[in-house]
Amino acid sequence: MASRQGGSGDAEPLGPGSTERRTASTTAAASREDDVRPRSPPESPARRRARAGRSDRTGRSGEYRSVDPPHGGKSAARTPEDPPVRDPSLYALTDHFRERLEQPGRYVSTRTVSDAIREGQLRWNSTDGWRFALVEGGVRFVVVVSDTETNSPVVVTGWTEVADREAALEASRWDGVDVDTIAVRAALSESASTPIPDRIRPRTVTRPFEVGEHRLETEPGEPFVRCTDCGCRFRSKEGITSRRCRQRSPGR
To answer: First CA to last CA across the chain, in angstroms?
Structure first.
């Protein structure tokens, strides 16, 4: 997959390991394995929403219908409503999404994106449009795509959700901190303005994950996530993204 130039949005193949934590080096190596060409079509409404930071905060629990394209989704004259093609090599990555691949605690890689496009369930969501969803090891990988009516479709964003907690905890791919990180991040994103202390309190996140400018963790019994850099405490995603991180001075 190739990076789509033209600006990034705000702050869903990996190397071996059970946790699939992202690094810039593994992202770059994985990206070179995908055979794509750079493209620059006009920006679609879904991509504008993602750039505004809405795609991972709205519509996740909205109504959608499950569909799959006849004949691989190809047609002579495509429209945005036509199911997208299942060839990962045709998709480019927006800069918005490529930046997310390098953030700790996202658990989304170019490999999982390719797998979701090839094998995942295809869904239409009234907010974001077309999504691919693939469950592996108790975790659901969701990939949102756009410009699918053109010859230059793009991956707009992606995230993970806990589809089956018991299966995820039993899978060698994840450990308990991975599963709780995925659960907390997904809960924060379901409704950005809603405080979720009861959904944070039972979770253990000892490896900080990033949202906005903050690196967040939490311990069992705490009804908030705490930034390891500035010490601020948050109960909602809106609180996190609306506050800049100012690192504490030594001794504080």
So the answer is: 45
102-120 CB burial, b ≥16 within 10 A, e <16: ebebbbbbbbbbbbbbeeb
Phi-psi region of 89 (alpha: psi -120 to 50; beta: other; left: phi over 0): alpha
User: CA–CA separation, 146 vs 245, rounded Å?
Assistant: 32
Helix axes 110-119, 24-32, angle to 10 degrees: 50
Judge residue 97's burial from the number of C-beta atoms within 10 Å of its C-beta, 0-12 exposed, 13-18 middle, 19 or more buried: buried
Show contacts of 165-170: CB within 8 Å, 24+ apart.
165/138, 166/138, 167/137, 167/138, 168/137, 168/138, 168/139, 169/138, 170/138
Q: How far is CA 23 from the centre of its chain?
A: 15
- pLDDT for 24-78, tens place per residue? 333 444 444 444 334 444 555 555 555 544 444 444 544 434 455 554 545 458 8
Q: How many CB atoms lie within 10 A of CB 126?
A: 10
